[in-house]
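Hey team,

Filing this mostly as a record. A colleague (T.K.) asked me to run one chain through the structure pipeline before their review meeting, and I want the input and output archived in the tracker in case anyone asks later how it was produced. No errors, nothing strange. Just documentation.

Input sequence:
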Amino acid sequence: MNNETTATTVPVELLRKYDRPGPRYTSYPTAPVWTDEVGTEAYVDALGRASQHPDAPLALYCHIPFCRKRCYYCGCNTYITNNPARVDDYITNLCREIERTAGLLKPRRKVNQLHFGGGTPTYVDITGMAAIFDCLEEHFDFVQGGERSIELDPRVTTREQLDFLIRRGFNRVSIGVQDFDPDVQEASGRVQPEKTVTDMLDYCHRLNLKGINFDLIYGLPRQTVAGFMATLDKTIALRPDRLAVYSFAYLPTVKSHQSRIRPEELPSTEVKYQLFAAAVEKFTAAGYRQIGMDHFALPTDELSLAQADGRLHRNFMGYTVQSAPEMIGFGMSSIGYVDNSFFQNHSKLDSYKQSVSGDGLAVFRGMRLSDDDLIRQYVITSLMCNFRLKFSELKTRFDIVYHDYFGDDLAGLAGFVDDGFLVESETGLTITPLGRTFVRNIAMTYDAYLKSDSKKATFSRTI
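Output structure:
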């Protein structure tokens, strides 16, 4: 593998040029074009068809929405409570949904990827977590060496919980850091001393846990270039296996709790560009390989190895090497992909409870993909994950000729070629190290729904 050991410098003028609203492409077609006409009945039919492939592995996602306190910047589907009865009731309904879904999937039980997100998954105590894991293991067969990952809040997670997670086979964790600067933390509503993070990281290392990820956010209130560079340096010194560097989307009209952030304390657009440019340059200079537009991994990490071999995949759980053709979502707001269709659960706690208490399922919208959707999904996923597209693989998989099929779209790629983001050869497309930062913009070229005025959607900005 040709490891990248030199820095990728991203000119601010290019960030300025290409910063525009656009999808993150955790799915294609994206969620705004899904419809409530695709609901529970369609989901039951899709699960039935999926059950006819008993040897195909599944990916499972479980959403735990609870937090003790809401971070001001949060854009996730969360529920703030200090009522244990609420949590116990949710676990009961979650297990009911797991049991009902597994019944519809029989005899298909094999699982090679499990992820817990939130919210704060470790808000649930060990007894509650054990109940969920026991339910999952009763109804599904987890393959040896499969991925089990979970998101951790170092302010909440105990060593006893980490010991428990290791005993239950978890092998990847994602630690929410955001920024080490105390002033930024105060303005963001998440005060988290640096020692809290380093103590957790040290304990994870003592448990021989590999695959540790740090989440960082740029664009938070009171962030400065100098302050964020200090956070980047501290992060590099701690040497997590993976890094995610997310852009903060300030949408107080959509997320009312974000109104607690003072807009005058947010970095200017120009400073925000500089924050992200610094992250790309520092992490690639430190030996991390850029995975997608905002993820990084050490050269020895399996994500880097998979990307070099063209084996990297992406779903709502993030980047992964575990290739499961279908994903099942459990819990409030979770999303699944079954039988070439997306399905999403109710996003409010009471609606979720009411639905599961009825028929054991909670789907309220989705989308059945057309042949064109599947072709464009493949192209976008190939570029987003592996930074390349082989024309021969497109021909083999879909029996289409790239230039013939996408003829009307190709004019939109010229600017990316001119700016050094993209190289086209006789065999395919390759996104350059500079172009990796702009892969969302490149992917938008192939998005058929962005060309239609029939659906209006609000997306975060690409930078």
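Quick notes for T.K.: The longest helix spans residues 84-105. The chain has two domains: 1-31+370-453, 32-328.
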